[in-house]
# Entry
Amino acid sequence: MRFKVGFAWMLGVCAAFTVSTPSALAYTAFVTNEKDNTVSVIDTEKLEVINTFKVGHRPRGIILSKDAKWLIICASDDNLIQVYDARTHKFIRSLPSGPDPELLILHPSGNPLYVANEDDNLVTVVDIEQGKILTDIPVGVEPEGMGMSPDGKVLVNTSETTNMAHFISTETHKTFDNVLVDSRPRVAIFNKAGTQLWVSSEIGGTVTVINPADRKVIGKVSFKIPGINKEAIQPVGVRITKDGKKAFVALGPANRVAIVNTETFEVEKYLLVGQRVWQLGFTPDGKLLFTTNGTSNDVSVIDVEREKVIKSIRTGRYPWGVAVAPF
Amino acid sequence: MAITIAANKTSAAPSQRMIRWGLALAVLVAAFWLTGSTRSIAEDAAGAGKETVASKKDMLTIPLILAREKRDKPLPLSLLDLPPDDDGIAGAKLGIKDNNTTGQFMNQKFILDVVEDSDPDNLIKEVVAKVDGGAHFILTDVAPETLLKLADTIGGKEALLINYGAADDSLREENCRPHVMHTAPTRAMLADALAQYLVWKKWRRWFLVLGPNEDDKLFANDLRRAAKRFGAKIVEERVFKYETGNRRADGGFEQIQQQIPTFTQDAPDYDVLVVADEGNLFGDYLPYRTWDPRPVAGTAGLIATSWHPAIEAWGGTQFQNRFKRLVNRNMRPLDYNAWMAARIIGEAATRKNSGEFADLAPFIKSPEFTLSAFKGVRLTLRDWNGQLRQPVPIFSPKLLVSVSPQPGFLHQFTELDTLGVDKPETKCKAYTQ
# Structure
């Protein structure tokens, strides 16, 4: 949804040139390197790092503003959100947050910003134009995952030690429902139609699928990989394809990304990627998926249609989050 | 003496609801301090915070008893190792606080009721009275014999004991009880974790030095067992005999500098000195003073333990921060073990949406029960003796060095069961009954 700008144009280009390789379009992927305090900038056509720039301490969650002009980064150890120019990589400003911000999400209108503050049991709502905190929403212990319904009405936050998905109204800033999921929920994401909410449980080893309309659990995805012990299967990042048919789930130290059918909730395929794979990001055309592999210091690039890993790209140390810009 | 803890929340810009809660809490805390009361928070609330508590009428209160036997132990060598008064209790407090953050969404409120006594019989009496008064869940930090006596005294009552203090394998083996769980790793688990790392490092020839105390002998036994299991060899064994003197004497290092080299002289070739000194009464004299230049592991130098204030992996940073904000000191292994014990009850109460013994106790013992405890994997209870299965990290004095089980030590069910006494070897018969 945040890649709307330019997407139609991209499709046009695609059609005009009838490209044969999935990476023919140059977008720009940004990867936060948690250990290095840097962001690696990757050209998605050449599939190589074209720049690395310094940011605040312990960068983790990263997103683009709606107009794709700003890169918005959680500098966790600085207890700040930092804004960089997405094209020039110059620092623009800081935004306030609570302590230890980890993941963030924008309202579909482009403002405000919702930030999970892992250290304070709060979700902070920040006006990014005015640079001020609008309010804090109390949630469970160690808030982390942030999902936004496509209509912008419902924010979902997951709390890692409380093990819940908290449903929050973006109008009243109040939680109106809490759904218990398996241990240590990390990521929450809606499908494009808004009919499914996927919540990954890192320690529980499952992904819970919830119907946002009535908050009932409609499915649970389990994983089984021969030769990998079950404790090592730790789902974190989840991304759902534009057509809503498939979900990609990063499985942490199992070093795999699972491809899950969103109707049957069965795993169709496991792709071997780098080590401790956590977060995922599609290119705006949905053709490539980038995975951040923390302990092998690289990102893997997945060809979504062929369901194959096509390249590993070396980044800084402990790559954490990824966002891809439509330019 | 009894201490009662309630949920506490802070916020940079609190909502009205939070302010109300904050006020309620302030009133409660004030009431508690003024009266020095030993009553539960629920009773306090009835008198002191009528208005706010009325809105939460349907809050279910789940009391946790923490039983601690005060024991007279010699102080460890280092000023850095002196145990705080609330060692363990502070961890249980954080567990209660975490349970209550979740509890606000479940309408559950957990309270901690601490019972301390140096006389085991009195302690047992007090705990039994609490159980008869309706409490079901008891966290214990008591001597092994006290734990057995307590377990047998309350056997048949609706009570579940979680031992977070005693590492004795016997409590999980020949002396196991069906209503006793254990979050503290056993000596065998610690010894196995360390042994796997030393063997992975190819330091297979060990010089074992043990103290004269019973606990030291038990740990030395487990080190011998671990050496045999994982392919190390104890090439020399010596007992370090000492008189427990004053911990601190002006100077003192001059003599140690002379004594330790000679004590470790003339050993056959060895790779690592392994020390069993559970009280930390002499082990820390060994590093850098051995006759041969060799690393030291065991209870000093490189150690295996359930927690360390330097853990930052697996989301540990936030956990450490929460603890420090609560009690203004570092989290120690005993605090961590107690936190896990309190969280076991909290987790079960959340999952079952109940505080009933009949709902929680069987669930905790079932294979469905798992606990997330900042170790990177889910923790479960061994269904043959009630021991919490857990990875055991290895530390140098300041940093995490590794986590056992080590790669390559395989197991048909779970690698975590390469640590400690495994199902086929267990002497525990009572647990499954």
Q: What stands out?
A: Residues 1-5, 12-20 of chain A have pLDDT under 50 and may be disordered. The first strand of chain A starts at residue 28 and ends at 33. The first helix of chain A runs from residue 7 to 17. The helical segments of chain A are 7-17.
